[in-house]
Write a structure and sequence with these properties.
This protein has a domain at 2-97. It is 21% helix and 34% strand. It has four helices and eleven strands; from the N terminus they run βββαβββαβαββαββ. The longest helix is centred in the C-terminal third of the chain and has 10 residues, at 95-104.
C-alpha cells in the first residue's frame, strides 16, 4: 500500500506496509527517498548514525529486510502521527533540531499571504521586533 510521508519539508510517496504505529518499507527505498541507509552501525545518513538499540532489533528491522521508519523517527525524538487509514504519515523535527532552535531563540521561518494575496516571510523581518498573533476558532 502506498503511504505519503511528510518529513523535513519534503513529501514522498513510498511503497510501505502500515501496521498499528509501524511503517515498514524496503531499506533501499528508505535510502533512495530519505537518505537513511541501514548499515552495521545502524541507520546512517551522511555523518549521522543512529544505532539500533540492543534487544530491540525486531522493532526496527524485520527478517525480510524491511525497516520501520516510524520506529527510527521516534528513536530520534521525532513526533510521529498518521491518519486513521495509515495512508498519510507526518514526522516532526528531531529532538536535536528542536533543541537547537530553542537555544538560538530564533523562530523558524514561515510564509503567509496578506489580505491582498502577497506572500510575506518571517525572515524578511529578521533584526526587527515582530509581534505574532494567532487565533483559531476551535
Amino acid at each position: 500500500m502506498p503511504a505519503t510521508v511528510l518529513v523535513d519539508d519534503t513529501v514522498v510517496t513510498l511503497a510501505a506496509d502500515a501496521e498499528d504505529d509501524a511503517l515498514w518499507l524496503d531499506a533501499a527505498e528508505l535510502a533512495g527517498s530519505l537518505g537513511w541507509e541501514l548499515t552495521p552501525a545502524g541507520f546512517c545518513r551522511g555523518p549521522e548514525c543512529v544505532p539500533v538499540p540492543p534487544g530491540r532489533e525486531a522493532e526496527f528491522v524485520r527478517a525480510d529486510g524491511r525497516v520501520n521508519l516510524a520506529a527510527l523517527a521516534r528513536h530520534r525524538g521525532q513526533p510521529v502521527v498518521h491518519d486513521e487509514d495509515r495512508a498519510v504519515w507526518a514526522l516532526g523535527r528531531s529532538g536535536e533540531a528542536r533543541r537547537a532552535t530553542r537555544a538560538s531563540l530564533e523562530a523558524p521561518d514561515f510564509a503567509l499571504p496578506d489580505l491582498d494575496g502577497r506572500i510575506h516571510r518571517l525572515s524578511e523581518a529578521r533584526g526587527t521586533k515582530v509581534l505574532l498573533a494567532s487565533w483559531a476558532s476551535w
